[in-house]
Each structure stands twice: as structure tokens, then as C-alpha cells.
Amino acid sequence: MGTSPGQRLSAAERRKKALALQLAGIDLRTIADQVGYADASAAKKAIDRAVEESIARAKTDVDELRRREVMRLDRLQAAFWTPAVKDRDKKAADIVLKCITARDRLQGLAAPVKVEHSGEVTEYHIVGVDPEDLV
């Protein structure tokens, strides 16, 4: 049998309270007693679920913010596209390029920068470790 919306809210509030108590440094047995869980294991499971829910909400929030910023960049780029392309307006073209760069960065499309090391390492200095301990 499922839980009613009131029971789900109650369970969510209990998880939230259990998480807050754990963050305050309260042990799991005490959390179980204060929040009404059967034992420390049940409190731990509730706290783990609260953390998972929090992470999922944060990811959704970030995705939504990213989507909104991409929409703003699209709108800004559209406003300056014609002057940049048709009228060859250098300021408008600069804005369009900045929009494209920002959108690429937000969406993870920019290729990583390749870094090469052309020097040699000829000597290592180990600080705070006796070389004899490494053998």
C-alpha cells in the first residue's frame, strides 16, 4: 500500500530533520530516538536518502540555470547577428563571438587545452621522508 501525500511530506520532513541533526554532530542512535526511527540503521538510511535527494535537486537547479543562461546567450546573439554579419559591425561581431564562446563553455563543448612538457626532470628532492623508509 502506498503512502498518502501527507505521509510522504512527513517522511521528507523527518529525513530533513535527521540530516540537520547529523550535520550538527548528533549520533545516529540519538537521531533515531529524536526523529522517530526504529534504530540507528533506519536513521542512517533516511539521512542517505536525504543527501541523495539534495544532490538531485542541486543537479536539477544547475541544469535549469545553465538552460536559462544558454537561452539568454541565444537571444543576445540573435540581436547582434545581423549587424555583425550583414553590416560588418566589429563590435557586434565581438559580442556574437563572446556569446558563442560562453555558450560553448556552459555546454562543455570547448575542447580541453593540450599541455605539453618539453623539459626533463633530472633530480627529485623528497622532503620530510627518510629515503631508507622507502626501501
Backbone CA Rg: 27 Å
Proportion of residues in β-strands: under 5%
Parts with pLDDT < 50 across at least 5 consecutive residues? none
The helix/strand class is mainly alpha
Largest sheet: none
Count the beta strands: 0
- Mean pLDDT comes to 86
Helix content: 55-70%
Order of helices and strands: HHHH
The general outline is flat
CA-to-CA gap between the ends?
63 Å
The number of helices is 4
Structure keywords:
135 residues, mainly alpha, 4 helices, flat
Structure in words:
The protein has 135 residues and is mainly α. The chain contains four helices and no strands. It is flat.
SSE topology:
Layout lengths: L4 H19 L4 H8 L4 H46 L4 H18 L28
Helix pairs in contact: 1-2, 1-3, 2-3, 3-4
